[in-house]
Amino acid sequence: MLGVAGGIAAYKACHLVREFSEHGADVTVVPTPNALKFVGAATFEALSGNPVATDVFTGVDEVRHVRVGQESDLVVIAPATADLIARLAAGRADDLLTASVLVATCPVVVAPAMHTEMWLNPATRDNVATLRRRGITVLDPASGRLTGPDSGPGRLLEPAQIAELARTAAARGGLSRPLEGTTVLISAGGTREGLDPVRYLGNRSSGRQGFALAEVAGQLGARVELVAGATDALPTPANTTVTRIESTAELKAAVDERAPRADVVIMAAAVSDFRPASVAGAKMKKGSEAEAGLETLQMAENPDILRGVVAARESGALGGDTVIVGFAAETGDEDADALEYGRRKLLKKGCDVILCNEVGQGRAFGTPDNAGWLLTAPEGATDPADVTVREVPRGSKQEIAAEILAEVVRIRHADNSALQD
Ligand code: C5P
């Protein structure tokens, strides 16, 4: 069931119907009467293939409000206005949408859209807190251009973001806010190592896994610092500041500067292990002396940023309880399989968690889904056989992100309870 409240962003609900039905969902749109001032019922009926009603007096013989609410596997409300959120918090049932939410026992995901002042108003803050306490997933909105010339938090997330987050929330029975008050530093995308002003050496990373981590961490309540290299065009996640970098040196500088303020550091970027030893100041021209430089490149090794962050924690430059997560994209060979290389990498890098996955044959890079193993090392482990392995089933990059962050939350709680003992 897709609930639509009466805000200007209601037009984006049309895209959301598509997002869900293209994933195989049977969508029933339940607008508020005011939502139909922005988008006609005919549009929602045509897109969803289902009839649209706004009040409990239509189709009384079928007891509509009971049926739609009871039969849904997932209720998403986008956009949710301040008024709708207030009515939900009060437990009102004065139209079909609010009545349906009251009878729904499935996960309910609310995507707000309103002016910043309304979002930050104590009345709305209280109402949002009430809904969250009751187990409703109220997504934080995006920050950006609002209806008028103003800009700030309150903008409706993009339809693709809402659909992904709603699916992730539904799969986990809702999203709570265990990272409230924390700062999570995430690197994403591929590095580009310049050869001359025109050319670079890069890789096929899309940045999708790092952005998925930011999407979920932001909705778990964290303040996210996302340092991104080359990525696909992806919308900015909620509660996230994006800093763009190109080279490994720039990535290292950005990570090293931010890591001391972070409670969690996740290195999802595909970092180049080598860079051209020198960068030509002018374009290397065919037939010129410099052409030789294009035939045989002299390379220099890049620093390992992840190991640097681990070393900084050991030296006390970071908080001792900073949780550090790395990735290992591995292929197996005659010596060992991909998982074994992942176990070795966890110990070599010295981080707390590694998401290891097997790559090659179109797997992982640029694809919407992923699978792998979540590796954690017990305190003082030195033997790869001691590494704890948990299989992460194939799922969207956002579902993988949710698994990784659940592990991060477990580690943080274990740390805190150890302190309390
Ligand atoms: O050694 P490998 O490149 O397989 O390690 C992958 C992990 O290490 C990833 O988390 C990646 O972001 C990080 N890394 C890094 N600095 C490098 C190379 C990789 O932080 N120079």
From TrEMBL:
**What InterPro entries does the annotation carry?**
CoaB-like_sf (IPR035929), CoaBC (IPR005252), DNA/pantothenate-metab_flavo_C (IPR007085), Flavin_trans-like (IPR036551), Flavoprotein (IPR003382)
Instruction: Region Phosphopantothenate--cysteine ligase: list its residue ranges.
Output: 184-421
Q: Which GO terms describe its biological process?
A: coenzyme A biosynthetic process; pantothenate catabolic process
Keywords, alphabetical: Decarboxylase, Flavoprotein, FMN, Ligase, Lyase, Magnesium, Metal-binding, Multifunctional enzyme
**Recorded superkingdom:** Bacteria
- Residues in DNA/pantothenate metabolism flavoprotein C-terminal domain copies: 179-409
Q: What is its EC number?
A: 4.1.1.36, 6.3.2.5
Could you state one GO cellular component term attached to this entry?
Answer: phosphopantothenoylcysteine decarboxylase complex
Q: Describe which pathway this protein belongs to, using the record's wording.
A: Cofactor biosynthesis; coenzyme A biosynthesis; CoA from (R)-pantothenate: step 2/5; Cofactor biosynthesis; coenzyme A biosynthesis; CoA from (R)-pantothenate: step 3/5
Which sites bind CTP?
273, 283, 303-306, 327, 345, 349
- How is the cofactor bound, in the record's words? Binds 1 FMN per subunit.
Spans through the membrane: none
Q: Which GO terms describe its molecular function?
A: FMN binding; metal ion binding; phosphopantothenate--cysteine ligase activity; phosphopantothenoylcysteine decarboxylase activity
The reply on keyword Magnesium is: yes
Catalyzed reactions per annotation: N-[(R)-4-phosphopantothenoyl]-L-cysteine + H(+) = (R)-4'-phosphopantetheine + CO2; (R)-4'-phosphopantothenate + L-cysteine + CTP = N-[(R)-4-phosphopantothenoyl]-L-cysteine + CMP + diphosphate + H(+)
UniProt entry tagged with the keyword Metal-binding: yes
Renumbered to this chain, region (Phosphopantothenoylcysteine decarboxylase) spans 1-183
Q: Which residues form the Flavoprotein domain?
A: 2-164
What does this protein need as cofactor? FMN; Mg(2+)
Regarding protein family, the annotation reads: In the C-terminal section; belongs to the PPC synthetase family.
Q: What does this protein do?
A: Catalyzes two steps in the biosynthesis of coenzyme A. In the first step cysteine is conjugated to 4'-phosphopantothenate to form 4-phosphopantothenoylcysteine, in the latter compound is decarboxylated to form 4'-phosphopantotheine.
Cited HAMAP family: CoaBC (MF_02225)
Q: Write the protein's name.
A: Coenzyme A biosynthesis bifunctional protein CoaBC
Native organism taxonomy: Bacteria, Bacillati, Actinomycetota, Actinomycetes, Mycobacteriales
